[in-house]
Each structure stands twice: as C-alpha cells, then as structure tokens.
Write a sequence for this structure.
C-alpha cells in the first residue's frame, strides 16, 4: 500500500482513493480540504459501486467493552495501516415506510454484517419498537451478537429549551425496559440528533446520570445525513414507484465517503493520531438496500471495517468536550473545544440543509 503524509501533524497515513480523485499527479498526496459543491458533484458522478469481497474479520469481544478502555494511550495502528471504522445504526423501527418491510431490512442488514463477521452498535429508540413485532426485530439482532444500546424512548432533542434535564432523564429511563431483555444489551447511550444539552447544567447533569447508571456516551465520530437521502428516495418513489433507486445509492456512497474523509482528517489534525471511527447510519430502506455497496466502497477507499465493541474500547470515547451547545460528532466537538478549527466547523455539523441544494442540482 502507498502511504502518504496526509496529516498536517506529520503522521504517515494510507492514501485514499477518495483523496486521489481530486488531485493531479504531482499533488495527490497533499492535504485535501473539505469539498465544495462542484467537487462533491464530481465525486458523486464518479462514485463507483461494486461488490468487492470483504476480507476483514473482527476480533472484538462484547465482554471487553463492558470492562471499559484499558489504556489511556493512543490506539495502535493496525498491521494493515488502514484507518478503521465501525458501523453504528440508529432507530430500528417496525415501520420504515411502504417500500420495504422490517423483516426484509433485517435480513439484508444482518447478512451484510455476518458476511464480514462484524458486530455493530444498534441504538434503539423505544417508541419505534415497543410492541411484540419490535421485540422480534430486536431479537434477531441480539441473536446475531450485535450491541443493543439506548437511544431514549421518544427521541427528544436535549438542546430544545423546553426539554429539561428532568424530562430528558425520564425519557432515558423509560427506554431501559425496552432493551433490558436482551443478552447483548450494552450500556452505551446515544443522544438523539447528537444534541447533548444547551446549558452547562443540562450537559453536566445528564453526563453524571449516565455514569451513575454505568453508561458511556455511544459517540459518533463520522456524522452524516444518510436519513435525508432516504427521505428523498422515498419521496421520489411515492411519486413514481418505478423510479430508479441507484442514483440515491450513488449519492449515499459519495456522501458517506466524503464525510468520512472530512472527519478523519479533522481527527488527525485535532488529536495528532488516528482513532477508530464510528460511522452513523440509520435503519432505513436506503441503507437496507445499499449498505453492502457502502461497505465495499469504503474498503476500496482504504478503510478497514471493525466491530463496534472494539472501536468503543478506545480511550477517545471517554472524552467529554466542554462545548455549548454540546454535542455533534465527537470529533467535531473536540475540534471546537480546541478553538483551532473555527474555519472548518459549521453548525450543526451535518443536516439536510447542506445536502438539499446538491440533491436538487442532481435532480434527485
Ligand atoms: Zn435517532
């Protein structure tokens, strides 16, 4: 593998197909700034989607996660030298619209992970699964060895001024019985919309509550707006049930690779070393149909998939950035806290407003 000094901190990291796409021959190993809209559209058109076989196998073990991180030092590079990323999937639901059943979504997604011998972290919002059918949905993930984690019961935004600490804490507690029956229940909490509180009191109060309950933050490092791409695909299919789904697949692949490149570089520049990443995707028809293509594209771009329990062992996931409003990607928050990257950070880190004009331009 070709290695290149991508990082401004001077570390040697692998070259990446995505980076090479935007550089001429004599500058291909230079730092890649965030893409502008034109560059993104170019990538979208070139996003190659295939079915490269996976060679990555996980050595992660569920029990190690519960024991917590063992060392405080930076994570060691793998033998391959590839950047590592785990999948975290939010909001499984028994109702994901008229175009796909949850049974089919489960079948496709679980096959994706089984093929690579990976476990992923599933963040469960009780209101979407709190019925007998939902228990069947979750049981299939539990039997396959995935991590079943708390994503609150009602998906309230903790940054909303009307969502008090007491209300948010009660909603967290209300979700506990939903995930309690499963053997792979894991004490990781993911804040809805990655919003961790708009005041110091709310932010620190809930962080203390998580610790009291033996919980840790199920941080996202690579944030994205995959849910919005699915919204757009479903809207198109509602108008025209024969509309092609592949352009939405290609947009999803390009978008996730673009965000992975951005947050990896931001992590390198903020921390000075690689971290295992956690990618956010949602339990939606688009992901159920095309996550296999996403995973193959990441592999071709130089990434290595790892199990979620292994990723969350890294001590970076114990960090608690002192930002307000709190939240966003962990990498975003650490960069914001450092005060060194104001020109590279937008707020919110990810949202539909950033994808809307690009998808309009593509007629999606
Ligand atoms: Zn969610």
């Amino acid at each position: 593998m070709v290695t290149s000094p991508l990082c401004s901190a001077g570390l040697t990291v692998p070259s990446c197909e995505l980076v090479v796409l935007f550089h001429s021959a004599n500058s291909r190993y230079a730092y890649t700034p965030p893409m502008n809209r034109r560059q993104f559209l170019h990538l979208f058109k070139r996003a190659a989607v295939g079915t490269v076989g996976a060679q990555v196998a996980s050595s992660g073990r569920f029990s190690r996660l519960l024991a917590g991180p063992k060392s405080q030092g930076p994570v060691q590079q793998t033998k391959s030298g590839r950047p590592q990323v785990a999948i975290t999937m939010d909001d499984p639901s028994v109702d994901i619209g008229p175009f796909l059943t949850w049974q089919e979504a489960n079948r496709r997604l679980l096959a994706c992970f089984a093929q690579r011998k990976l476990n992923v972290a599933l963040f469960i919002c009780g209101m979407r699964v709190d019925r007998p059918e939902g228990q069947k949905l979750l049981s299939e993930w539990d039997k396959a060895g995935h991590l079943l984690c708390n994503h609150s019961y009602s998906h309230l935004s903790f940054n909303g001024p009307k969502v008090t600490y007491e209300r948010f804490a009660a909603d967290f507690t209300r979700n506990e019985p939903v995930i309690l029956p499963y053997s792979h229940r894991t004490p990781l909490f993911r804040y809805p919309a990655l919003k961790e509180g708009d005041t110091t009191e709310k932010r620190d109060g809930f962080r203390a509550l998580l610790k009291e309950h033996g919980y840790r933050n199920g941080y996202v490092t690579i944030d994205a707006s995959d849910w919005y791409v699915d919204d757009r695909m479903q809207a198109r299919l509602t108008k025209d049930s024969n509309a092609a789904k592949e352009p939405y697949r290609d947009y999803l692949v390009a978008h996730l690779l673009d965000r992975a490149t951005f947050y990896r570089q931001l992590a390198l520049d903020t921390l000075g070393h690689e971290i295992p990443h956690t990618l956010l995707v949602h339990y939606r028809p688009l992901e159920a149909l095309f996550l296999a293509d996403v995973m193959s594209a990441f592999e071709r771009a130089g990434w290595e998939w790892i199990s979620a329990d292994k990723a969350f062992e890294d001590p970076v996931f114990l960090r608690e950035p002192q930002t307000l409003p709190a939240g966003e990607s962990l990498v975003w928050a650490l960069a914001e806290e450092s005060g060194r990257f104001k020109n590279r950070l937008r707020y919110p880190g990810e949202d539909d407003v950033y994808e809307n004009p690009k998808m309009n331009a593509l007629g999606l």
About this structure: The pocket of zinc ion is lined by residues 90-91, 125, 151, 155, 192 (CB under 6 Å). The chain has one domain: 3-155+172-194+208-361. The domain at 3-155+172-194+208-361 is CATH 3.20.20.370 (TIM Barrel).
